[in-house]
Fold:
Amino acid sequence: MSLLPAFKAIEATGFAMAINNSKYDFALLECFHILALAVIGGSVLLVDLRLLGVGLRNQPVASVATATRPWLIGSLIVILTTGFFMFSSLAASKYYYNAAYWYKMYFLLAAIFFTFAVRQPFAMRESTRVPSAIAKVVAVVSIFLWLTVAAMGRAIGFI
Structure:
């Protein structure tokens, strides 16, 4: 089953055409997308660096994870929303043939799953101040996944 017809249908929607025909809509979407990327990067790094024992050593991991969770969720919602609208307005069917786009989507799904199914639950129950080997592995995997999402997003324009 090919997703190409769905991609073509998305790019033909009214909101996609409205974004394409607007002078400022895409730029505004991109500004919010990049701002949300910075926020999610900060919230992910705060927890992951704490899991590695690099920063905020006086704070329990669970309190850092609790404090950053609203920023993580809020920025993820903004990223997914603005990303969809940018995708729809930029000839979505072109993305169908772009390998970097598909890698970004696979890694994005993996990063979201890992963050909410593994890292967040682990961080919420981690009460020790000295990071364990498991905490370090969780942090490294998290950083790798999110950095790969960002790298593949950047690569979309070059592949």
